[in-house]
Amino acid sequence: MKKRKNPYIIFVLLFCIFTLSITVQHTVSADEFGTVPPVEELYTIYSIHTNEALFESEYVEVGDQYVSKNNAWYEVISVDYDNYLAYAEFKAQFYLPTITSETPEHTSTQQVVGLYHTHNAESYVPTDGTDSIYGIGGIHDVGNALTLALLQQNTIVYHNETLHLPHNSSAYTRSRLTAQSLLNTSPVPVAIFDIHRDALPKSSYEVVLNDQSLSKIRIVVGKSNQSYSYNLEFALKIKATSDNLYSGLIKDIYIGKNSYNQDLTNQALIFECGTYLIEKEAVIASMPLLANVINETLFNVSGSGDIIISDDITDNADIQPATDTGITNTDTDLTIDTDLDATNSNHLKDNIKILVSVLFLVGIISLLMIVQKRRSR
Asked: What global pTM score does this model have?
């Protein structure tokens, strides 16, 4: 006589598989930046204050943050996944220092940076003929151009072109080894940059500076790591330098919930260099400017002030441009990691809830199995 399978065990297994599937699905969705979505599937994020479109994104979650070209800081508070809409509220206004290079604060004797590509396949349709090349995509040409421009400014560059294919949710896990290897190189890089291209319309990136057609750059910062506040401060300093040298080159800063391996060091960022619909030549032409911004920020910068934060909505440059801010605060500390603590706390609470639920269910099933076994005797 065949022994019947215990239905309780099957139920527990199905419950565990379901729980894992939810977690994996969330991770995959959050890591797909750079994957070209259908045009109708781009999210438009609106301000709850003015109902005006702030920016577009191929993926967005509640809690994602955004620093506009005018340095207004927003946080996404709701997402309509059916209609690809989201709404963000004003969080604070950054006032960035005026950056000059006349009297440097410091000059490093070891001017070293590291470059790599998590999404190697990313390419540019007008130039490469496709948005993705399985292998060394067009994004590597952009990395090479940035490398050359930095070298011309006497900066040592480690450009690691290790492949991390395919372009999926595990790519950042694979590229973590590459990022770590860059930081283990001697002399150690002062900063590392993950070079990507975006998946937005061409109009969101094209710009003309000094009568030359170029591509804007988006900076991406990861929230879910202990280095978040340092990396965001670093991103704001780069934007401050860029705004003073080449106004319009840095389009904005996107702050996502993931880590993007930026927990490895306090100066690690993603650069979204153009989008898949812009000519690669325009992106490459922007690299000498970006190299100069990086070099000035890291090795040859003097600021005439500190980064100041105001939570007064009347000072929000995107809602009501202010000609006289009246801000006298000169606090040098940028304390912006409270949201990270809340995020980590929420993740921990969610994980504990899942664990307790599973253990409770397993306990109940085990008790039922013991009772059934005793009755069968």
From this structure: 0.77
Q: What angle do CA 68, 71, 72 make, to 5 degrees?
A: 75
β-partners of residue 72 are: 93
Find out whether 229 and 335 touch, Cβ atoms under 8 Å: yes
Please report how many Cα atoms fall inside a 13 Å half-sphere around the Cα of residue 83, on the Cβ side: 8
Cα-based angle 104, 249, 297 (whole degrees, multiple of 5): 20
Contacts of 156 (CB under 8 A, 6+ apart): 110, 111, 112, 113, 187
Q: What is the pLDDT of residue 35?
A: 80
Q: Number of helices (H) and strands (E) in the chain: give both, helices first.
A: 7, 16
For 199-353, list the strands marked E by DSSP.
Answer: 206-209, 212-215, 217-222, 250-256, 268-275, 302-303, 308-310
- Give the DSSP letter of residue 257: S
Instruction: Judge whether residue 239 has pLDDT over 60.
Output: yes
Task: Give the burial class of 352: count Cβ atoms within 10 A of its Cβ; 0-12 exposed, 13-18 middle, 19 or more buried.
Answer: exposed
Are 215 and 273 contacting, i.e. CB atoms less than 8 angstroms apart?
A: yes
Tens of pLDDT, residue by residue over 136-157, are 999 999 999 999 999 999 999 9
pLDDT bracket for residue 84 (50, 70, 90): very high
Give percent above pLDDT 90 in the chain.
63
Q: Which residue has the tokens 């419950």?
A: 15
Cis bond leading into 201, ω under 30°? no
For residue 2, how many C-alpha atoms fall within 13 Å in the half-sphere facing its CB? Answer: 3
Neighbours of 246 (CB within 10 A): 19
The tokens describing 127, both together, are: 């130039």
| Domain boundaries along the sequence of the chain | 7-29+343-376, 31-336
CA angle 318, 320, 326 (to 5 degrees): 110
**Dihedral sign from CA coordinates of 331, 338, 311, 76:** positive
Residue 244 has pLDDT above 60, yes or no: yes
Alpha-carbon distance 237 to 97, whole Å? 8
- Select from 3.40.1280.10, 3.40.50.300, 3.40.630.40, 3.10.580.10 the CATH code of 31-336: 3.40.630.40
How far apart are the C-alpha atoms of 147 and 290, rounded to whole Å?
11
